[in-house]
From TrEMBL, chains A, B:
GO CC terms in record: cytosol
NCBIfam families hit by this protein: rRNA_methyl_1
The protein's name: tRNA (cytidine/uridine-2'-O-)-methyltransferase TrmJ
Substrates-to-products reaction catalysed: cytidine(32) in tRNA + S-adenosyl-L-methionine = 2'-O-methylcytidine(32) in tRNA + S-adenosyl-L-homocysteine + H(+); uridine(32) in tRNA + S-adenosyl-L-methionine = 2'-O-methyluridine(32) in tRNA + S-adenosyl-L-homocysteine + H(+)
Subunit structure: Homodimer.
UniProt organism field: Hoeflea olei
Protein location: Cytoplasm
Keyword Transferase on entry: yes
Sequence similarity: Belongs to the class IV-like SAM-binding methyltransferase superfamily. RNA methyltransferase TrmH family.
Gene: trmJ
Domain tRNA/rRNA methyltransferase SpoU type per the UniProt entry, residue ranges: 16-166
Record-level Gene Ontology MF annotations: RNA binding; tRNA (cytidine(32)-2'-O)-methyltransferase activity; tRNA (cytidine(32)/uridine(32)-2'-O)-methyltransferase activity
Assigned keywords, A-Z: Cytoplasm, Methyltransferase, S-adenosyl-L-methionine, Transferase, tRNA processing
């Protein structure tokens, strides 16, 4: 299928492709190639097993050098998501929970609309064998799943990235006379803001012995994060919520705060 | 992305995937896997370079055994097409000539319509390096091409087969936007639940002198209620949020709650 025209300008940009703990360099290279085919160039890699840079990734990328060279490595998924406003997790099957589940076409269109509106977006892809953990899916705003044969569902990460990259490209080819994508009414905050809210609440709850045990803690934190992620809170909304929790945190019912304490303090974060 | 459910019936049938002189067994295996993911099972191979059967194809097929075992080898492309009613050639670019050129979505829908009408259909894919020769494209009824980045067009045959197999599967879904799974709707709670949350938070803030003055209070309460109303929280989500605020409210950072206090108490309302 070779047909590259080196006189044409390279299409770049688009949603970030976020690979969570990929194991094989070959797969990272194939992901880069899939992205380049359909005009994506922002690759983020969380904690790759074999380190970075990776020679096998380079050779499998088949000259998608701009993607490989531009790849950014993060130690944690939270860091990889910090500046993104809206994130899909890709999963082979819907998980329990309250996140919306969409197909690739709808996801491609939604990402295009958000990017056109100036949001930064991303797509999460899990490890080769075990995919994404529940708490990682919990950091996403919604889930995208593929209409695979239920009796044979074994898309690898490069294939999953290929399908989403293709749907991203297709979403940009729509008839310009077609209804323009409406700007989402509320722009979700960069994930760092949301994670700041998580941290504030979870520290407060920890200090109060809310979680009882470490196993209950994990499940409760998952639920809590799901509830706080689902609305797609804006930065202003998050700041207001942080102010509420800060007020509950800092003052007893009976104490009158010094003038100015309660509202000003909520802007300070400890992360 | 593993998610195979072995209790589900395997989807088979559909258009024949015709590989013309494929070189690498690995690619044939990856083609089989791509087909199986999206419910295709008829693989035809014209004059494979390394003969047939091919161990590398089997191992790369990742248990898509039914596709590999059912593959039929032909000496010539003409023979491979003999019983087919309608055939698309896949190419990286449109060729000179008078054949219709369509995209993958339209091709998937056309193939579905013809198969439903009892026709036998096929899709031709060329060699790894040089694709299909012009005379081979000439044996097809129409051309399907992919909306790739013109400056980086290097879909391999397994990727091209994956995209067409995916479009075939999609064409069989009632609504092309739908995926195999339904979208969970969050049912917003009855307003009484939401108002209970308002009351709990506002009383807590009042007790802490958060509002300063009655005029500031009204504006702040309006904002707060707007933020909490916008997500359309479900009853379960509201209960979780009430639990958080109750915990912040009732316990000092230093105090350990009695067993059972924090979580159970949030169900009690004071309204």
């Amino acid at each position: 299928m070779a047909g590259t025209d080196r006189n044409r300008e390279l299409i770049t940009g688009g949603p970030a492709i976020v690979l969570v703990e990929p194991q094989l360099g070959e797969n990272i290279g194939m992901v880069a190639r899939a992205m380049a085919n359909f005009g994506l160039s922002n690759l983020r890699i969380v904690n790759p097993r074999d380190g970075w840079p990776n020679d096998k990734a380079v050779s499998a990328a088949s000259r998608a050098d701009h993607v490989i060279e531009g790849a950014v490595v993060f130690e944690t998924l939270e860091q990889a998501l910090e500046d993104l406003n809206f994130v899909y997790a890709t999963t082979a099957r819907p998980r329990d929970g309250h996140k919306p589940v969409v197909g690739p076409v709808e996801a491609g269109e939604a990402l295009r609309g958000r990017e056109n509106a100036g949001e930064k977006t991303g797509l999460l892809f899990g490890r080769e064998r075990i995919g994404l953990r529940n708490w990682e899916v919990g950091l996403a705003d919604a889930i995208v799943t593929f209409p695979v044969n239920p009796a044979y569902a074994s898309l690898n990460i490069a294939q999953a990235v290929l399908l989403m990259s293709y749907e991203w490209m297709k979403s940009g080819l729509a008839d310009p006379h077609q209804t323009a994508f409406a700007r989402p009414e509320v722009t979700p905050a960069p994930k760092a803001d949301l994670h700041g809210l998580f941290g504030q609440i979870e520290r407060g709850l920890d200090a109060r012995g809310y979680f009882r045990s470490e196993t209950k803690r994990m499940k409760t934190v998952d639920n809590l994060r799901a509830v706080l992620t689902r609305p797609g809170f804006s930065t202003a909304e998050i700041n207001l919520l942080r102010g509420l929790f800060a007020s509950f945190e800092k003052f007893d019912r009976t104490r009158q705060p010094d003038e100015g304490d309660a509202l000003r303090d909520h802007g300070e974060t400890e992360e």
